[in-house]
Amino acid sequence: MPTKIERIFKSIDENAGSDIHKIVRKNCEETDVKGILSELERTCDEELVARIMKSCGRQCIPKSYITHTKTIYEKSDGIEDFLNELNKTRIGGGQLHLGNRKIIGIYDQCYCGLVNKLKGLSPLYCYCSAGWYEQLFSSVFDKQVEIEKIMTIPESADHCEFTINYQ
Predict the structure, then answer these.
(1) CA 31 to CA 6: how far, in whole Å?
(2) What's the confidence (pLDDT) of residue 115?
(3) 71-104 in b/e burial notation, b at 16+ Cβ within 10 A?
(4) pLDDT value at 34 more than 90
(5) C-alpha dist (Å) from residue 77 to 40, 73, 144
(6) Which terminus of the chain, N or C, has less C-beta within 10 A?
(7) Separation between Cα atoms, residue 107 and residue 95, nearest integer Å
(8) Which DSSP category does 152 fall into?
């Protein structure tokens, strides 16, 4: 599996094109996640940075998580039972629940080993988690789901929260 940095650069190339890819590589150290995000924010609009990071998150989730989650879903007695069983495994942060006919996903910390010690990281990085959730639940429900980033720790919240529209 490619490294997180390799996935970010691949996502930049696929979503923003080779010109932006070259600019970011030229202006940033290859291991500087904060610098890469800053350069993306300088050269791209928020929607494009979000698309880049979601793409990265979709690549990041292990296939074994998807397979295991599908098994849990197939054995569950409905969506609430599924989320309760999934929470026991801690896949998806361990705090998944229903609210307003959507799944609410909460992280009380960043689980990304590359960034969880960085201070002052751009909140746009958290679209990576949105992509991760998107890949997980789209695979499980066998249809495209929509993810909305509600709040994040880099935005001074005490947790990260996403809604997953699965219906």
Answers:
(1) 10
(2) 64
(3) ebbeeeeebeebbebbeeeebbbeebeeeeebbb
(4) no
(5) 44, 8, 22
(6) N
(7) 7
(8) -
**What amino acid is encoded at 53 in this protein?**
M
Question: Do 83 and 48 have their domain in common?
Answer: no
Pairing of strands 102-107, 146-151: unpaired
Amino acid at 8: I
Phi, psi (degrees; rounded to nearest 5) at 164: -115, 110
Domain with 130 in it: 60-165
Report how many domains make up the chain: 2
Q: Amino acid letter at 158?
A: D
Instruction: Give me the residue label for tokens 């006919």.
Output: 101
Residue 16 has φ and ψ, to the nearest 5°, of -110, -15
Would you state the structure tokens that stand for residue 36, as one six-digit string? 């890469």
